Amino acid sequence: MPEYFVCEPYGPPLRTEQDAADLVGEAIGHGANAVAIPVERLHQDFFRLRTGVAGAIVGKLAVYRLGVAIVGDVSEHVAASDSFRDWVREADRSTHLRFVADLSDLQRGSQPESGL
């Protein structure tokens, strides 16, 4: 079972590869092998896949073999973008990235649900 470093919900939005690198350092420093990122901490560009922000952040964490959980309600973004909806569905089948409604889903080890 992954040991999550839970990113604080309040603070500057995560938008750049450097933001992700800083998060990697925090997670590894806490002995985690996965990171839980509240949707409140993600810059709005994360949800617009064409910007590349989501790929840069998730990709940087993957390079360091850190799992990623996006925590919170992404239903508005899923409804607004077919490509984002498809990415969430694809993530639901992966072992590296998941979308969950809240932290209790991680603690229970429940399967993620599309369109949260």
Q: Key features?
A:
single chain, about 120 residues, alpha/beta, Transcription Regulator spoIIAA, four-stranded parallel beta sheet, 5 helices, 4 strands, about 40% helix, globular, disordered C terminus
Low-confidence stretches: 110-116
Q: What's the total helix number?
A: 5
Q: Based on CA inertia axes, which overall geometry fits?
A: globular
CATH overall fold name: Transcription Regulator spoIIAA
Rg over C-alpha atoms, rounded to the nearest angstrom: 13 Å
How far apart the termini lie comes to 22 Å
Instruction: Sketch the major β-sheet.
Output: 4 strands, parallel
Level-1 CATH class name: Alpha Beta
Compressed to H and E, one letter per element, the order equals EHEHEHHEH
Number of domains: 1
Q: What features would you describe in this structure?
A:
The structure is a single chain. By secondary structure, the chain is α/β, with parallel strands linked by helices. The chain has one domain (4-108): Transcription Regulator spoIIAA (2-Layer Sandwich), CATH 3.30.750. The protein contains 5 helices and 4 strands, in the order βαβαβααβα. The protein has helices spanning 17-29, 53-63, 75-80, 82-92, 103-108, and strands at 4-6, 34-38, 67-71, 97-100. A 4-stranded parallel beta sheet has the order 1-2-3-4. Helix 1 (17-29) packs parallel to helix 2. It is globular and about 35 Å long.
